[in-house]
Every structure is written in C-alpha cells, then in structure tokens.
Amino acid sequence: MTSTTAPDTTAPTQEPVTPDRPRTTLTRRLSPFGYLSPTIVLIVVLMVIPIVMVISYSFRDNVIVQENSVFAGLANYTTVLTDPNFLAALKNTAIFITVSTVAHLILGLAFAMMLNTQLLGGVTKAIFRIVYILPWLFTIAVIAVIWRLLLDPSGVVNYVLQTLGLLQEGVNWLSDPGKALWAVTFVNIWSGYPFFMISLLAGLQGIPNDLYEAAAVDGANPVQRFLNVTLPQLRPVIISMAVLDLIWTSQQFALIWMLTGGGPLNVTEVLSTFTYKQAFSEYEFATASAAAVIVLLLTMVLAFFYVRLQKER
C-alpha cells in the first residue's frame, strides 16, 4: 500500500525586520521643522537678515550712499548718544509712553467697570460699547486727519472752549511748542484706550461673584471691594497690558509723523521720528542704524519683562 504525503505548503518563516531606529528617530525629530520651514524662511528673510544688516551698518561709516564703507567702531553710537536732538527725542519718548500708558489703564479700567456694572441695561451697554470702541476702528491716517481738523485754530475744539469761556482766542495746539507734545499724547490716548477697555472688561467678567459676595458679608464697602478683590484679580492682566503698551507706544511713528512731523522745534520728536529723519532726510544711514539698534535694545528690555511675566502666569 503506497502512502502519499501531502506537500508542505506552509510559507517559510521570515525573520522579523528590525526597523532602523536611529533613522526613524531622526525623521521624527526633523519632521516638525519641515512643517515650520516656510515660516522659518520668512522670519529669516524678513526679520533676521534686516536686523543683522542694520547692526552691521551701525558699526560702519558712509554706508549705502557710498560703495566702499569703512569700519567706524562705536563712533556712530557716540555721535547719536551725544546728539542733543536724540536726547530730546529720548525725553519726549519717555513722557509720551508714560503718560499714554497710565491714561490708557485708567480710562480702560473706568470704562470697563462701567460696562460691567449691573446698573445699566443690555441695550444701554451695547450702545456704549459701540461708542467707546469707535476710536479703535479708525486707521492712524483717519485719526490724524480728524484731529488735525479738530485742533485747528478754527476747529471744533477751540470753538467749544471759546463758547464755554475757557479761551479768548483760538490756539494752534499742534504748532505751539508748549502744547504740541501734550496734544499728540492726548490723541494717542484717545485712539488707544479701547483696546485696554476690551481686555480689562474680559478680565472683570472672569472674576467670580462669590468673591464679591464674601467681601460684602465681611462688611467691605465698594471701595474696599475694588481694592481687595478687583485689583488683585486684574493684576496679571494690568501688568501684561502695561508692558505691551510701553512696547507699542515706544514704536509709535505714523500718528506723530502725520500730526506734527516731530515739530515744532523738535518738541514732539520721538525716537522713531528721529531715526526716520536721520535716514531719509539727512541720509545719515550709519547714525540712523545706530539709533535703530538703541531703540531695539530698549524694546528688547521691555519684551524680556513681558515674556517673563507670561511665563510666571
């Protein structure tokens, strides 16, 4: 009797393929940079390279206007730091940003608390929100044109003040050396407070009512509730907004340039307008680069504190 054996159709056992772990790990680590590469290229081209070029210009003389520039060391920085116009611009910038930031916080908090109160109805709050947010909706060019007309000697501001008996004759607010800086600061305050109002209003709406109820049970009056409940709860928002406003206001250029151009007699000259004039009016690109680097360093100090505050939060 012949026995037949069925052929073994079982597939041969294959040894498991060991993955290339180093290559896989490297690919996994580099893949996020592949997605970020377009943004990184844009940042390098539009930010890093120009900053490096400006820093290099600040250490050379006769840049851009002449083909062969020479190394000047710190001479451009010495020229800028000893220039009376630069020192005046630094002083004006300090006054401009300090007064603007303080006024933004006070007005923003006052209007935010008014819009957060329970004494006003929903329709009334909506109307006030539209009115208070209007300055933030206008562009800088529109704001400058509006206020140049309002502050003209024959403008609405002088007419109202004369009607109330506060002025005997029209004042040219933007051409008077004693009033121009304060007029420009007032316009900047008017155009910037809505952003603070919105941010602080969001912070107020995030404060639990239980804290106010507990303070009322303990016998705290409205002023004590504001000082011991509202302000401590808003402290992170207030500090962050103040540092941000210092950075933004220190870089304000368009509004001042379109209102006064840094005049009269340089009383509204700030660091941004001084740098612009050095580069495009006097064609001193080397000293303009040095001034720009100084402004960059001052801004980086403020940015450092802002980032540090955000990390603490």
Could you characterize what this model shows?
The protein has 313 residues and is mainly α. It has one domain: MetI-like (MetI-like fold, Orthogonal Bundle). It is built from twelve helices and two strands. The chain has helices at residues 21-58, 75-81, 84-116, 122-137, 140-150, 156-163, 180-205, 209-217, 222-250, 254-259, 271-280, 285-312; strands at 60-61, 70-71. A two-stranded antiparallel ribbon has the order 1-2. Helix 3 runs antiparallel to helix 9.
Number of helices: 12
CATH superfamily: MetI-like
Could you tell me how far the N terminus lies from the C terminus, measured between alpha carbons in angstroms? 90 Å
Binned, the helix content reads over 70%
CATH topology: MetI-like fold
Please provide the count of β strands: 2
- Mean pLDDT level: 86
In total, the number of domains comes to 1
| N to C succession of SSEs | HEEHHHHHHHHHHH
Radius of gyration: 30 Å
Q: How can the largest sheet be summarized? A: 2 strands, antiparallel
Provide the CATH architecture: Orthogonal Bundle
Main location: membrane
InterPro entries: MetI-like, MetI-like_sf
Domain ABC transmembrane type-1: 90-306
Keywords: Cell membrane, Membrane, Transmembrane, Transmembrane helix, Transport
